[in-house]
From TrEMBL:
Species this protein is from: Meiothermus granaticius NBRC 107808
EC top class named in words: transferase
The name this protein goes by in its record: tRNA (guanine-N(1)-)-methyltransferase
Gene: trmD
tRNA methyltransferase TRMD/TRM10-type domain residues: 1-220
SUBUNIT field: Homodimer.
Database matches in Pfam families: tRNA_m1G_MT
Coiled coil: none
């Protein structure tokens, strides 16, 4: 997978590519991440990439000519994505779709936004939440992490991401590790039993319980079995 992140502030992004799993994936050749300074495509000696808005108003707007040249300089792409509060919500399902692509261009807006004519040169607008940030860099990094970890070989245990929150439509079950007891809080005995069938059942019940308590809206879209519904009814009665 190849990523091209287009930004006015490349030094905000580059450190993220030099640490942890992303850095290891780059070193293995599983992904490549090009961080491109949009200002390099400006034609004046001041490298101007923004200007005042037509019609008046506060703030500055990123120029269409500079932005489009930055997109074109990144080369052919499967998707050209603008990070924008007006975009479709970023979800695990969308991450899984994008992870199958060969080249993603991620365009980071700044200031009051990007000249609307740029929309003709993008394939998607994506939002990471109903709030406004100072720029699209964090959104681009969210997409980078969420998709890169799904690429075979990036995460050592392939099963890990298949049981993540949202991959099954439910929140993930609770996890525990050593020590067995900490300040009176103990690891559930079932997890130390070695009985894999019962452990799997416990985890599924806990995922259902967490989802019902914390994100009940997800249950409306999750693919639930008859057994899942029976456990949810049991939960209503105070069980599970």
């Amino acid at each position: 997978m190849r990523y091209s992140i287009l930004t006015l502030f490349p030094e905000l992004v580059r450190p993220w590519t030099q640490e942890s799993i992303v850095q290891k994936a780059i070193a293995k050749g599983l992904i490549s991440v090009g961080v491109r300074d949009i200002r390099e495509q400006a034609s004046d000696r001041h490298k101007t990439a923004d200007d005042t808005p037509y019609g008046g108003g506060a703030g500055m707007v990123m120029r269409v000519d500079v932005s489009v040249r930055a997109i074109e300089a990144a080369g052919p792409a499967d998707e050209v994505i603008l990070l924008s509060p007006a975009g479709v919500p970023f979800t695990q399902a969308l991450a899984e779709e994008l992870a199958t692509k060969e080249h993603l261009v991620l365009l980071c807006g700044r200031y009051e936004g990007i000249d609307a004519r740029v929309e003709g040169f993008i394939t998607r607008e994506i939002s990471i939440g109903d709030y406004v940030l100072m720029g699209g860099e964090l959104g681009a990094l969210v997409i980078l992490e969420a998709t890169a970890r799904l690429i075979p070989g990036v995460i050592k245990e392939a099963e890990s991401h298949r049981q993540d929150s949202f991959s099954s439509g439910l929140l993930d079950y609770p996890h525990y590790t050593r020590p067995v007891e900490f300040r009176g809080l103990r690891v559930p005995e079932i997890l130390r039993s070695g009985h894999h069938t019962k452990i799997a059942e416990w985890r599924r019940k806990q995922a259902l319980k967490r989802t019902k308590e914390r994100r009940p809206d997800l249950l409306e879209r999750a693919e639930l079995t008859a057994q899942d519904w029976a456990w949810l009814e049991e939960l209503e009665r105070g069980g599970v």
